[in-house]
Amino acid sequence: MTFDLERARNETPGCRNVLHFNNAGAALMPERVLDATIAHLELEAQIGGYEAAEYAQDAIEHTYDAVAALFGCSRDEVAIIENATRAWDMAFYSIPFKPGDRILTAMAEYASNYIAFLQIARKTGAIVAAIPNDVHGQVSIDALRKALDKRVKLIAITHVPTNGGLVNPVAEIGKVARDNGILYLVDACQSIGQMPINVDQIGCDMLSATGRKYLRAPRGTGFLYVRQGVLEQLEPPLLDLHAATWVAPDRYEMRPDARRFENWEANYAGKIGLGVAIDYALEWGMDTIWRRIQTLAYQLRTQLSPLPGVIVRDRGVTQCGIVTFTVENKEPEELRKTLAQQNINVSVTTRSSTLLDMDTRGLTNMVRASVHYFNSEEEVERFCALLASII
Ligand SMILES: Cc1ncc(COP(=O)(O)O)c(C=O)c1O
Questions:
Q1: Does the Cβ of 221 fall within 6 Å of ligand 1?
Q2: Span 70-78, average pLDDT
């Protein structure tokens, strides 16, 4: 079946203004998401914020069902949180680490996650170790197996790192985690919305994600999955009157579901927009989206590679919509600014966002061009032609 690009572009108002290859930064919202989000803000202004939330209760609650459908989990295992970082933090900082406990992670782990590992290591005496990559540049399953011992308390892996097309083998890692009874936390911030994600297939206990990237939801939306059974054992690092109830002068009771990881005040317009964005993605179909993104990214890599001085840097057996490259004698930031003058959006990924990976590869920064299903083949060609003319 051919992909209905015309529909995708017609339903994306931003396509009329920009050539947007910054979908791993924040994708262009579909019209439907924009309308639902603005409508709720207007309702808040017209009748009051609390009253609007009461009125829109079904749409707000629907977002939990939408996440559950996206992940293949139950709505009680879902928390909606303001971004992926806090979602991940709420899971990670709930885990009670002791001196000598080990945390295994990936070489291309995201800076915020690694900073949290280092902080917990300093405070508790836990030890963090990055599993070496295999020859393809993804987490080595052999090295993971070799790194296991009784002290491994957590495996925490970023599915798609911030700095490239790599897709880590999260399901194979999940099998190792499950076989050995080790807690498994996946950062799916950059994979959600571009490929199918099923928490049972991955075999994770916790998974964090964001709305604004490949899901095309409003900014300031994120969410967390915590497996029933695991969530009962975890006490969030922060609690409030939404996450728990004050039942006696010296006692509180936590909510039984994953909303114990949330807090009371929230951006309801964003939450509704997130639900609509997920419905919209599921309507296209995650398999369809994933095929389309891989096709476009392949085209982009293929057309970039022969350009003089350009080196495409993506690694991994499976590569996603994030295309990274360097150009000889050209600063990525300078290129980004030049492209922006032509209404072409890309971003720059820097050393400190994925320090271990960048240092190992001898890189300081790269241009990151991330394609989505609503981008066109013509845009890929225009992008490469323009780049060729400025390098
Ligand atoms: C791999 C990864 N994890 C987490 C995050 C943080 O997501 P958020 O900005 O929604 O907190 C990012 C953002 O770029 C990311 O690339």
A1: no
A2: 98
